[in-house]
Design brief:
The chain has eight helices and 15 strands. It has 313 residues and is α/β, with parallel strands linked by helices. The model has no long low-confidence stretch (mean pLDDT 96).
């Protein structure tokens, strides 16, 4: 089969690599245009583009998916399938109708739960113990197409969104190849999603990382894991802004302390009162500095119990 692959971030690379190892032929790749990245805002190529260049594959980077010149170039590849993993944009009807065997999407959740751009992050933030990969037939909606295959994956207790993403990406590549094989063999039948069970996982914004200390310690710990590595869960300590990198819920009541109050400061952890229980902070990253242990931070920034986090001095 002739396959066109569409993807952009690092999560999509294992899907492309799996297709390249399969019996089918990747005839071209579509990825998003190069964009400014990092503090210096230097224009950088996406991971899928870098992988494509390493393999010497034909590449298109359309600014607009409805551009007639792009659609003509895509049509010239004569795809049997268009396989999509984390491309980042909804495909227009002209693209959905183009491949002879349809468009297939790899999505990092057990649909219909967590439709949208942030399924991995929101699954962790919401305290899910299980997630997975779904392959589906693409339609004009956002992750609303009929389900082809699913594979469940257990979320580890201390796993961050970044670490889980790496594991799910490998599962996604393997399931994509299996899906195409079974579609060719006629051994998989698309199953409509149960719309009544659908939930959304919108793209995270930087502001979503601000910690609400009135939440329970477990909820905050989940939020820290789900926001790692981006956008980062953060709070304020006086004039300083901390990104919390490693935390854990402590099985002790917070008493009458105001949520956000540091009740213990030692070389091992900062213990903070929350709206339900205590949170131990063991690693953090101050503004304009590197990630460090609490012991390293306290060596240059002595703290006393009683400081209330979340309030700017």
């Amino acid at each position: 089969m002739r396959i066109v692959f569409m993807g952009t971030p690092a999560f999509a690379v294992p899907s492309l690599e799996a297709l390249l190892r399969s019996e089918d032929s990747v005839v071209g790749v579509v990825t998003q245009p190069d964009r400014p990245k990092g503090r210096g805002q230097a224009v950088a190529a996406a991971p899928v583009k870098l992988a494509c260049e390493r393999e010497g594959l034909p590449l298109l980077q359309p600014v607009k998916l409805k551009d007639p010149a792009f659609l003509e170039a895509l049509r010239a590849w004569q795809p049997d399938f268009i396989a999509v993993t984390a491309f980042g944009r909804i495909l227009p009807p002209a693209m959905l109708r183009m491949p002879a065997r349809g468009c297939i999407n790899v999505h990092a959740s057990l649909l219909p739960k967590y439709r949208g751009a942030g399924p991995i992050q929101w699954a962790i933030i919401n305290g899910e113990r299980e997630t997975g990969i779904t392959t589906m037939v693409m339609d004009e909606g956002m992750d609303t197409g009929a389900i082809l295959l699913q594979e469940r994956v257990t979320i580890q207790p201390d796993e961050t969104a970044g670490a889980l993403s790496v594991r799910l990406a490998e599962v996604g590549g393997r399931l994509l190849v299996e899906t195409i094989r079974r579609l060719k063999d006629g051994t998989v039948t698309p199953q409509p999603q149960d719309q009544s069970q659908a939930t959304l996982a919108p793209l995270l914004q930087k502001e979503d990382g601000l910690i609400d200390w009135k939440l329970t310690a477990t909820d905050i710990a989940n939020r820290v894991r789900g926001m790692s590595p981006w956008p980062g869960a953060y709070t304020f300590a006086g004039q300083d802004r901390w990104v919390l990198c490693r935390v854990s819920a402590v099985d002790r009541p917070a008493g009458a302390a105001i949520p956000g109050t540091i009740i213990q400061a030692s070389k091992d952890a900062l213990v903070v009162a929350t709206g339900g229980g205590l949170l131990a902070i063991t690693e953090l990253q101050p503004a304009s500095s590197r990630r460090m242990t609490v012991s390293q931070y306290l060596a240059g920034h002595p703290l006393s119990p009683g400081l209330i986090l979340g309030r700017m001095a």
